[in-house]
Amino acid sequence: MPRYEKHINRNPAVIDKLDEIDPNSVGAILYRPKDDVDRLLADFAQDIVQQGVRIGGIVQRHARSANGTHVMLAIDVATGQEISISQPLGSGATSCNLDTNGLAEAAAVVSKALRNKIDLLVVNKFARQEAAGRGLRAEFVDAITRGVPVLTAVPKKCLADWRTFTAGVGTLLPCDRESLEQWWCEISTRRGRSGALSPSCGYLGTMIPDRLMTTVRLSTTSSPKSPIGLFRRLRKQP
């Protein structure tokens, strides 16, 4: 049995006691194929970290290995650890197969974050895997039922699945920075009043211009110890 298989082979999890959940604490960015939602989440996560907010979870990045194969990475926002969640199809391929071991390792990262006292959980997306009862579905359920604020992204084609999963609980957000900042301002202010965290809804910065962004190229160097260092490397031009 693969090392992380137990995190993947499970019955579809469902959210209990929906009437006790604060609907505003679940933010879902609705995006289309042309939207760079991965960069939006990574930028936002970096700025939240710099504000001293305790966050956990993963963001996603697409990369090219040394031989040119396409790789998808899940990045632990707390440590900067890179986890490959894809199985390359070969040199020059523009798509890849999902790696169940990698997905399960990413799920373990999210589960570990939930065991700590975090202010916000960031999960790169709720998509086909989660809709089918796999991927990070159980971690979504765990976070939402714990009352931990969750920020994720939902492709437009999976919107109906998301609504079924959450029974309509949650806030749909446009795929733009201003909407994320407004949502977080409201969440952090409300939880600050209850003593759950210190309010931090000031201006968090702006998106990095497209010319400063590039696809990650994998190297043999170890992952940076700081997540901030990793985010900077993701933005750095080759």
Characteristics:
globular, 7 helices, 10 strands, Rossmann fold, Molybdenum ABC transporter ATP-binding protein
Write up this protein.
With 238 residues, the protein is α/β, with parallel strands linked by helices. It has one domain (22-194): Rossmann fold. Helix content is 33%, strand content 19%. The protein contains seven helices and ten strands. It has helices at residues 37-50, 100-115, 128-131, 137-146, 159-166, 177-193, 227-235; strands at 26-31, 55-64, 70-76, 82-84, 86-88, 96-98, 120-122, 150-155, 171-173, 216-217. The strands form two sheets. Strands 1, 2, 3, 4, 7, 8, 9 and 10 form an eight-stranded mixed beta sheet that branches. It is globular. The model is unreliable at 1-10 and 202-225 (pLDDT under 50). This is Molybdenum ABC transporter ATP-binding protein. One of its GO terms (molecular function) is ATP binding.
Chart the SSEs and their pairings.
Elements: E1 26-31, H1 37-50, E2 55-64, E3 70-76, E4 82-84, E5 86-88, E6 96-98, H2 100-115, E7 120-122, H3 128-131, H4 137-146, E8 150-155, H5 159-166, E9 171-173, H6 177-193, E10 216-217, H7 227-235
Parallel strand pairs: 1-8, 1-9, 2-7, 2-10, 7-8
Antiparallel strand pairs: 2-3, 3-4, 5-6
* CATH topology call: Rossmann fold
Instruction: Return the structural class.
Output: alpha/beta
Give the percentage of residues in beta strands: 15-25%
Task: Calculate the mean pLDDT score and round it.
Answer: 79
How many distinct domains? 1
Low-confidence stretches: 1-10, 202-225
| Envelope shape | globular
- Helical content band: 25-40%
Q: What is the CA-based Rg, rounded?
A: 17 Å
Query: What's the end-to-end separation, in Å?
Result: 39 Å
What count of helical segments does DSSP give?
Answer: 7
Protein name: Molybdenum ABC transporter ATP-binding protein
GO molecular function: ATP binding
Keywords: ATP-binding, Nucleotide-binding
